Amino acid sequence: MSSLPFEAFLALRYLRPRRTFVSIITVISILGVMLGVAVLIIVNAVMSGFDKEWRSRILGFNAHLKVMHRSGLIADYERVQKVIASNSAVRGMAPFVAGQVLLKTQPKEGQPKFMAPLLRGIDVDQEKSVSILPDSIKTGAYDVGGRGLLIGRDLADNLNLGVGDRLSVYSPANIAKIEEAFSKQKSGAAGEPDRMFLPSEFVVRGIFDVGFAEYNASIVVSSIQRAQEMYDIGDENVHIIQIKLDDPFHAYRVRDELEAKLGASYRVITWQEENPQLFNALAVEKNMIAFLLFFIVIVAAFGIINSQITFVVQKTREIGILKAIGATSSQILALFVSQALVIGVAGVGVGLGLGLLVLKYRSVILATLNKVTGIEVLPASIYQLYELPAEILVGDIAMICGCAFAACVLAGVIPAWIASRLQPVAALRHE
Questions:
Q1: 26 CB contacts (<8 Å, ≥6 apart)?
Q2: Cα four-point dihedral sign 230, 235, 237, 239
Q3: For the CA atoms of 390, 395, 396, 402, what is the dihedral angle to 10 degrees?
Q4: What pTM was computed for the model?
Q5: By CB count within 10 A, which of 2, 281, 399, 427 is most buried?
Q6: What are the extents of the domains in the chain?
Q7: Tell me: the pLDDT tens digits for 109-149?
């Protein structure tokens, strides 16, 4: 005798493959549930991974708050830093000068290349408290002393630069002086001697990789003193003070507190305000994709309904016999619901395993797709990351598996209810 309940024993026996049309439909239903669950888990984990990695990379390089003066320059920034440091939520801060410059390479052979990245002048010591930059040097050293310059790996590749190479750097102030001198010489202003303004020369001391393609391709880093000199803003002025907090999600509260202390002349921008489109678009896309993909599970549920109704019609005489020998309507109901439970457990279980397996080997699968198709499936210039991220959240997986399983069980309730309503005499007469 089987130790299983009567209903479960018959449900498993009826589900055994017998090369019938019903068995094929059952297998297809299980495959549908499996694919729906696997795809939902994979997509949800990848979207969560993008959210985590983008936030980590952006905040790792840009900190949590930025303090700026409405005039464009923060005068006597050391005094402003003392005010900021009085807030208990502040973990670190660093001033910097930022602006666009024009780079010109000095190749030994061939034509020079030009690029217009953003120059960031940093305080070497204070930068360590707010940024991952000091720990992101892949080649060379974290050194911007003298005429030292740090450049991103993508920018280095685009300009064919390495450690030790020299660059000419034109700042807006430098270009303005060149234009002014040229204009005076052209107009023949009396008493104006011929003057030549040369660009600043820098040496590449290090190549960094902060894990975010946009920053690696569009930012160069110098010392704050050189940046102040290039922008002709004086030693006591900077453009921005970056702030790192104990908790980035307290940014709005700390912003309000600092703005009250610093006064109306200052603006404090949070990391959410600086990147609203990026994170909002990601959240909307994640929810919409999950909603659309859940219809895969709904289609599989319709397959379960189809197979169960066909099965009820096929087993009508057996149902009549079971009722005739004493089986109750609730037992017949439980019998067919048990079949839906088995399909749900099989489909959800295999789908969960498949989804986790694909996520584990996602990098290998992506590399294979790139090689086979000859197309870069995840271009860093668009998605900003060099590898496919994934963040497996237990809560999300539980919700996906739970909803899929509930859909399978509910799909089996209607056919089971129809079977339980059959009368023994009518069932036995069924042809």
A1: 15, 307, 343
A2: positive
A3: 140
A4: 0.72
A5: 427
A6: 6-55+278-428, 71-264
A7: 878 888 889 999 999 999 998 999 999 999 999 999 888 99
